[in-house]
Here is the input.
Amino acid sequence: MKPNIFLTGFMGSGKTTVGYKLAAMANMEFCDLDALIEKTVQLPISRIFEQKGEFWFRQLESRILYEASEGSNKVLATGGGVVLRQANRSKMKSSGIVVALAADIDTIWERLKNSTDRPLISGDNPRKTLENLYRQRIALYRDAHFIVEVDGKSPEFLAGEILRLINAVN
Here is the structure.
């Protein structure tokens, strides 16, 4: 029985992409929490924010996290804001191994600058909004068992690096 692995990190850090690769390499189930939220509500996240607001979304996100955390042998890619609630960070740490994917703000901007489905960085100056949000959250991502730098590394390499880190302590 393998412990769950939670991937956290800022939006655009590669949680879903690396998560798929990691789950395949480790022969574990892959679970994308944002996709589960969208499936539950039958709306894209941008529409959930628009129609219900961020507070409602965060409540649902916590519920889905707790449900998905049950059991073992899963790689769970979380949403970028799941770390905003201390209870979520505690739940992840007590339910498995938390790996934060750390990306430089320029890397994130390059990945997200043409995105139209990121409600938290829409508006007149998305780069400035992104930088402010990044600064507000960066310390929260450090509340993890491992921090993995992603800049310039392929998803396959990162998945292997995460497995090596976890296997070294288990």
In short: The two ends are 12 Å apart (CA to CA). The mean pLDDT is 91. Helices lie at 15-26, 33-41, 45-52, 54-68, 86-95, 105-112, 126-141, 155-169. The chain has one domain: 4-164.
